[in-house]
Amino acid sequence: MSFTNSSSNFWLEDNHILHASCVDNDGNSHDSQLDLDHYIGNSDGWFAWDGVNFSKTASNVQLQGSQLTAELATLSGEPRERQVINLDERIGNNNGQLAYS
């Protein structure tokens, strides 16, 4: 299940640690966090799932609902136009905990 459908109060710490209040199977809310740098990388200025450390080459990182946006550096070091990745594609709520799938 996408995390935005069963969670609230989403925010980013240090541009890469996703925080949310996630509801478990019993309806209880739990504070949870997930380091997106373990799952998202930068491929020549584009977000890439199954990569790592996107935030090391990102600027102007923002979270808008399930959309993570940033300006990512290309291989030449130049910034690419603002990129968007939908976290709901791979981040879910597993019984009150943010989880990557």
TrEMBL record:
<protein>
    <recommendedName>
        <fullName>Cyanovirin-N domain-containing protein</fullName>
    </recommendedName>
</protein>
<feature type="domain" description="Cyanovirin-N">
    <location>
        <begin position="2"/>
        <end position="100"/>
    </location>
</feature>
<dbReference type="InterPro" id="IPR011058">
    <property type="entry name" value="Cyanovirin-N"/>
</dbReference>
<dbReference type="InterPro" id="IPR036673">
    <property type="entry name" value="Cyanovirin-N_sf"/>
</dbReference>
<dbReference type="Pfam" id="PF08881">
    <property type="entry name" value="CVNH"/>
</dbReference>
